[in-house]
Amino acid sequence: MIKERLGKGLNTIIMVLVSLLLLLPMIWMISTSFKKAKDVFTYPIQWIPLDPVLTNHIKVWTAGDGFALFYLNSLKISVFLMIGAPLLAALAAYGFSRIEFKGRNTIFLLYLCLMMIPQQVLFVPKFIMFEWMHIYNTHWALILPGLFTVFGVFMIRQFFMSIPHEISEAAFIDGAGHFRIFIQLFLPLSKPVLATFAIIDFTWTWNDYENALIFLLDKKLYTVPLGMQNFMLEAGVDYNLMMAAATAGVVPLLIVFFLGQKYIIQGFSSSAVKG
């Protein structure tokens, strides 16, 4: 019993130390965002600024184009995909897990192979397609491709495969169709995995730099990653301003994570029950 307690205590101490080590860059970023320029590289490091200021954060939102427009653009795209992508992925996952049709497993395997294709390879075909659809240099160029994710279909399908077939068979006997079973049975049961994927998709979309850089030209359409890059070019070597901008960019991710963290472990564990 004593050895077991000592082992758990040692594991806890190690995990706390590793967590603090991983958090040090973020702590330094937040700390620097409240410092004056002359205090950024003082040694030893001032983890808690002796003379904290709010001017850095104020300037981020007011100087130049500001971050308000970039935030609204990113929120619009990220929230739209956070809702739409899990729903479409759940529909596809239901088809691959519960609807019997010829070649289902083969098609699903080929579908999974798309995960091995680098996204950079698709930039030229996407550009040609978006030009033809007249959505280049619009937010639709980011929203439409983002609605379809191979990882989301795979993740949710794995969860659906863990649901006993007796549940859907009983619903069929009662006269329910596939759509009703999906809406009234599978969606309520899959809240953890849907919430987990929604958080992951929000993070992907919020941090998406390459697609925004290639498919958005108008500065009024910029998302937060492009806005941060633009701000850093303007700020030059003002690291305190750059860290204030980076802190502002991280806040929505932290809020979404803390609101949905209870679903993440449950969603991953349940989606891995059955392959």
**Number of helices, counting only DSSP H or I runs of 4 residues or more:** 13
Order of helices and strands: HHHHHHHHHHHHH
Number of strands: 0
Major sheet description: none
First-residue to last-residue Cα separation: 37 Å
What is the share of helical residues?
A: over 70%
Uncertain runs: 271-275
Q: Shape from CA axes?
A: globular
Work out the radius of gyration: 23 Å
Main structural class: mainly alpha
Strand content: under 5%
> Taking all residues together, what is the mean pLDDT?
81
Short descriptors:
single chain; mainly alpha
Could you describe the 3D structure shown?
- With 275 residues, the protein is mainly alpha-helical.
- The chain has 13 helices and no strands.
- The chain has helices at 2-32, 55-62, 68-98, 104-113, 123-133, 140-146, 150-161, 165-173, 178-189, 191-207, 210-215, 224-235, 239-271.
- The protein is globular and about 75 Å long.
- Mean pLDDT is 81; it is low at 271-275.
Layout of helices and strands:
Blueprint: H1 2-32, H2 55-62, H3 68-98, H4 104-113, H5 123-133, H6 140-146, H7 150-161, H8 165-173, H9 178-189, H10 191-207, H11 210-215, H12 224-235, H13 239-271
Task: Provide a brief overview of the structure.
Helix 10 runs antiparallel to helix 13 (239-271). The protein has helices at residues 2-32, 55-62, 68-98, 104-113, 123-133, 140-146, 150-161, 165-173, 178-189, 191-207, 210-215, 224-235, 239-271.
